[in-house]
Amino acid sequence: MKQHFVLALFLFTAGNLMVAQQVSFEEYDLDNGLHVILHQDNSAPVVTTAVMYHVGSKDEDPEKTGFAHFFEHLLFEGTKNIERGEWDKIVASNGGSGNANTFLDRTYYYETFPSNSLETGLWLESERLMHPIIGQIGVDTQKEVVQEERRLRVDNSPYGAFFEVLLKNLYTKHPYRWGVIGSLDHLASATLEDFKNFNKTFYVPNNAVLVVAGDFETAKTKQMISDYFGPIPRGAEIQRNQVVEDPIVNTKKATYHDPNIQIPAILLAYRTPGQAERDAYVIDMISTYLSDGESSKLYKKLVDEKKIALQIFSVPVDAEDYSCYVVGGLPVGDNSIQDIKNEIDAEILKIQSELISEKDYQKLQNKFENNFVNANSSISGIANSLAENYMLRDNTNLINTEIEIYRSITREEIMEVAKKYLKVNQRVELAYLPEQKDAN
C-alpha cells in the first residue's frame, strides 16, 4: 500500500512538473522586420530583455575573421546616448546583470533586471541597435581585450586550441572552418570602415529577434517596444551563401603540439547534420549515452573499470548548417592514446551492431526529461531557448515540444544513426600532444 502511494505521489509530482514546463509566448514582427517574442510570467518580479542577431563567425569574410566575436565586445563600448564605460554601470545601478556570447551562427546579448527596470533594458538594447558608436578608440580598446582573451583561453590554456584545430580539419569549404575568436592578424589589419560595414550589414532589426521574458504588462511592454525599436530603419536583406561540404570519405589524421600540456589526448570528431534535423537529436542521445558524464558507458568502462583513462569527454557542437560530435580522452599511466581510441571504437561498434538495453534506453529518456525541465527553469534560460528555437531551428514552440522528439527516438533509430554517421572513414582523428622538447 505504501509503495503504491509513493509511486502515485511521484507520478502526480512529475505530471505537475511537466505541465508547469509549458511556456506560453506571443510573437509578432515590427514593420522594420524585428521579430518579437513575449513570455509573461508574473510569479517573480524579474524580467529578461535579450536580443539575438543572426550573425556568427560563419558570416565573416575568410580574410577578415573574428568580427562577430569582436562585435560582442565592441557593442558595449557606448552609443550616442551612453558614454564609454557607462553601460555596465547603468545595468548595475538598476539592480541588473547582463552579458553576451558569440558562436558559429549567432550573437546574443541579454540583461536581467527587477521588473520595474524593464524600460531600461529595452532602451539599452535599442541603443545598441540604433545608435552604436563604431569609433577608433573603442576599436583599439577592444582589440587589446580580444588579444588578451585569446591568450588566456587559447594560446596559454591547456587544450585550449583543440576546437580550432578540429574545425580546420572538419571543414575545408564551409566558414565553420575557422574559430569563433578568429585571427588576431585579421583584426589588427582591419580598418575602421571594415567594422562599420560589418555593423551596417548584420546589426539590423530584420536580422534579429527581441525576447522579453518575465514579469511585465503586455500592452505596456508592446508600446515600449514600438517606441524604442519601431523607429529603427530596416537593413538591406542579407545574402548568405549556402556552402556544402564534400563528405569525408577517408579518415583525416591531424597532430597538434600544445606547450601547455603534459598529458596527451585523443579526439575523434564526426561531422553530423545541422541542429534542426531529426538525426541531430539522435546524435545528441548517442553522445549522452556514450560519453556525457561519469554515468556514461565510456567513462564507466575506461575510467572506473579498466582505469586506462584519466578523463573521458565529449563535445557535441550544435550548429545551424552542420553539427559535430567530438569524443576523446586522456590516458593514464603507461596507457596510450591508441589504447583510448581502440576502446572508444569498440563501444561505437557495439552501439552500431546491437540495440542498447531497455534499461539504458529508459535512463537516457529520464535524463533528457530532466534536462528539458532544467533548461527552462529560469527566466533567462527561457529567453535564450525562445530566441534560439526561433532563429536557428525555425520553430519557437520547440520550447514546449522538443522533448517529444527525444521521446519518439527508438533504440533501432539510435543504432541506424550511429551506423550512418560514426564511421571511422568519416572522421577526424586529432592527436593532441605535449610540445616536443628540443633534444639539444
UniProtKB/TrEMBL annotation:
Q: Which residues form the Peptidase M16 C-terminal domain?
A: 190-367
Question: Which ranges form a coiled coil?
Answer: none
Which parts of the sequence belong to the Peptidase M16 N-terminal domain?
A: 36-176
- Swiss-Prot/TrEMBL keywords: Hydrolase, Metalloprotease, Protease, Signal, Zinc
Its domain of life? Answer: Bacteria
- Pfam families in the record, alphabetically? Peptidase_M16, Peptidase_M16_C
Point out the signal peptide segment.
Answer: 1-19
Per the similarity annotation, which family is this?
Belongs to the peptidase M16 family.
Protein name in the entry: Insulinase family protein
- Species of provenance: Flagellimonas algicola
